[in-house]
Amino acid sequence: STPLIAILAGDGIGPEVTAEARRVLDALGLDLTFEEALVGGAAYRASGHPLPAATLDLARRADAILFGAVGDPACDTLERALRPEQAILGLRKELRTFANLRPARIFEGLEDASTLKPEVARAIDLVIVRELNGDVYFGEKGRRTNAAGLREGHDLMRYDEDEVRRIARVGFETAAKRRGKLCSVDKANVLETSQLWRDVVIEVAADYPTVELTHMYVDNAAMQLVRNPGAFDTIVTGNLFGDILSDQASMCVGSIGMLPSASMDAGGKGLYEPIHGSAPDIAGQGKANPCAAILSAAMMLRHSLGQAAAADRVEAAVAAALRAGVRTPDLGGDASTRAMGDAVLAAL
Ligand code: NAI
Ligand code: MG
Asked: Whose CA is nearest to atom 33 of ligand 1?
């Protein structure tokens, strides 16, 4: 049957960039059904909740979700459970999307927008596979007054072997489809969790003889990511380390407006979103770069819809539009969101 795509555009620049991604998907002429729903601040204003039951129901029914961004300064004074950002956290939790794929590569001609030296930036073509449902974010948390009478807080870092095994497999599968190099990032010199992580990753490696596995401590990985990012192919890491390293990697490729992501569940369903937020500072001005959203749609085609050739076409069209010099202000140009989308469509 025709795949159902949930379009959750959200707040701020979310609807602006998602509209361009939708135009690109439409232009491919594939057999897809789209259904839209409110999420984030937009949903809160309409229904009193950032993730209404109807939106969650659509997300559950859909074969894939194209997400924009949530976040609205007008909602900043709301209690935490009603904040727009709770919608994306709720979706990840409800959909059990445990594998976050964040590719970072530099498009031809964008070296000058990177914070790195052009010759270093030019070599970046990596994917960070980040575990999304475990680690210190989901371990037991608490506050207390300790024996010395001091206020104390704690967050338990924990993983069980099944959680490590399933993300390790995603790491190996990803590497096997790329340049065959997997770097597992941990802190096994100090953390018990990381020693288990390393043991399990090594066990899983036996099933992937063609992938070359290396291990790196996270502090060194942070350093190598800016020193010589071209040396990385696929990185697999836990939730906390992956959060930090992937934001770091994003700046190496020119603009946060260029980076897509996928959050996958065990069955191949995914939530696809640009890594940026709702950018209230530029919302409604037609200045947002839609490339991250368009590239997220390409990831959706590849990872959830079995349309690898269409995904390749979209990525090539983005590259061609950029090569032709069309750039939004974050990349140093003056093209509008719509003009950037037009250029991608023209290249298609
Ligand atoms: P942000 O990513 O929205 O913006 C950071 C900076 O990058 C801003 O100067 C913005 O103008 C710029 N920027 C972001 N995307 C861009 C694009 N496509 N084109 C050109 N420039 C772009 O992060 P910020 O400002 O920390 O957060 C704004 C709101 O978004 C907050 O409410 C935050 O909680 C939310 N947020 C939501 C996320 C999500 O929905 N997954 C992720 C990150 C933040
Ligand atoms: Mg982050």
From this structure: 71
